[in-house]
Amino acid sequence: MEMSMKNLKAADILEDLESKLAYIPGGRDHDGRPLIVINVPPEFDSATKSKLEFLILYFISIFSDETKENGLVLIVDARHSAWRVTRSCIRLSTNLIGSKVISVIVIRPDGFWDKRVDSCTKSHKEGEPLYITLTRLHVYIDFSQLPYELAGNKAYNHVEWIKKRMKIENYSKDALELVSKMTNLHQRLNTFDGIRIMQSDDVESYWEMGIELLSTARHILQSGIYIFIY
């Protein structure tokens, strides 16, 4: 899959989003930092790696600069995966997000992967991933901020989230096109050529453009209820 890493849109990575390899449930930690959840897959081949990379980059682009400045929380659900795969997911994700990651919480299986991981959990250091079982997740994230899949009580519908994101991006595109057309119209009307056109038979086309701009603006404003900010 080849595409520009910049200006990613939901439609560009729809299949990746639908996989739910990673998602944003809308919850936050005790300090108000948003959560990004990664469902660690059984294997981490090149296709899965590329998919996770696009998802993380897309999610980062969604958050405002202020939100990213305050930090993000990465929850890695590794209950059904091997330590080797989990480690690869953590490395890729933290490298992409960088210093914006304030904490990484890894939900491990009830049984430890090996003694080395067991040792890490007992001697946790600042800045290192925290390995815990699902039953202890609420110590760090309130139940009300966790989706059902993580033993919380926050309603989250992944299919609806994707639909809303696509609507938001379509409306944003319409808004940008609207601004561009209005700017062009304003510039032309402020020139001698614009005055001449307004006195010609082309006045009808300008009238139609004005009606289109008004209709688009009304549509965007009425649809604002679907827009949510992180």
Automatic annotation (TrEMBL):
GO terms for molecular function: phosphatidylinositol-3,4-bisphosphate binding; phosphatidylinositol-3,5-bisphosphate binding; phosphatidylinositol-3-phosphate binding; phosphatidylinositol-4,5-bisphosphate binding; phosphatidylinositol-4-phosphate binding; phosphatidylinositol-5-phosphate binding. It comes from the Eukaryota. This is SESD1 protein. It comes from Acromyrmex heyeri. The lineage of its organism: Eukaryota, Metazoa, Ecdysozoa, Arthropoda, Hexapoda. The gene is Sestd1.
